[in-house]
Specification:
Low-confidence stretches: none
Strand order of the largest sheet: 1-3-2
Mean pLDDT: 85
Distance between the termini: 20 Å
Helix content: under 10%
Radius of gyration: 15 Å
Largest sheet: 3 strands, mixed
Strand content: 35-45%
Shape: flat
Number of strands: 6
Length: 104
């Protein structure tokens, strides 16, 4: 299963996903796909939140410029996507995960 918005064929990607899920890691931040997302990755060994950044570039992109604002609190992690529209950044999506749900 892919943990990015598009299917990928990353070498040893599934091995890495399984190792991260089995660890104490709750949150993985990544980029390069130029599309913001936040997904709960669940494996037999555990789970974690995978957050990919958007891009501030508007050059040759299907999605408008964006970035994620993260709020990490003892009880929850909030991911708020800020998207560039009408000359400014505005919140366009928000997701909240209970940190207890990130642990087995």
């Amino acid at each position: 299963p892919s943990v990015t918005p598009w299917p990928t064929a990353t070498r040893r990607g599934i091995v890495a996903v399984d190792r991260i899920a089995a660890s104490s890691v709750e949150l993985v931040l990544s980029g390069h796909v130029h599309m913001p997302s936040a997904d709960l990755v669940e494996r037999a060994q555990g789970r974690y939140l995978a957050v990919t950044s958007g891009t501030l570039s508007s050059r040759l992109r299907e999605h408008p410029p964006s970035f994620n604002r993260l709020v990490i609190e003892p009880e929850a992690i909030t991911v708020e996507t800020q998207t560039y529209e009408a000359g400014d950044f505005h919140p366009t999506a928000s997701s909240v995960w209970d940190r207890a749900d990130l642990r087995f």
